[in-house]
Amino acid sequence: EEVLDLMLELLETGPRNSAYSVLGTLGQSSSPKARQAIMRLARAGGTTSDEALRILGERMSSDPEAEQIVLEAFYSGNPMKRQSASWALANSGSESGRETLLAALKSDDPMLANVAMSALGNMGDSPETRETLQDLAANAENPELRNNALYQLINTGSPIATELVRKAVEEGAPGAESAMSSLIMQGNAGGEELMELALPGLRADVSVC
Of 13, 10, 35, nearest to 22 (Cα)? Predict the structure, then answer.
């Protein structure tokens, strides 16, 4: 108990690197006092809240209160909290975490959707994730969201990514050339073909300059 109290004091008064180390140790403790300290830090939004949220994310499947705190942070208007919570949801490995991130992809808030998309890339591929990304890459009105969905598909090696990039190149969509470069860097043969398709337009741009 005395050791635990000392660790909790370090969380409040110690340097940041020590606080991270202490949090990691507390995360292994089953003590109610340690649990409450982690939850308090996660809600506070301070410099160690990201680590506190990560720990709570790992407990989501067995601790409803931990899940609630992570969700509160994810839907908050605080960009740092959102980012940390999105990775906590992804690292939880839980189906509820995946479902929350997938639902956020369809949010009217493009910032929330982009944060969720980046985190989903850390959870691995799934049919539902792939289907949602394909829909966003083809139909999202927000250019940043559409491009991010396309990059996620390219990175997972989705066969439909080449056709979606082709469509973007043909339409002259913003970010199409960058997506094409990503295909080539992934060793996708379709990327070389798209380069030939884009060359006339690229040459025209150069001649205008």
Answer: 10
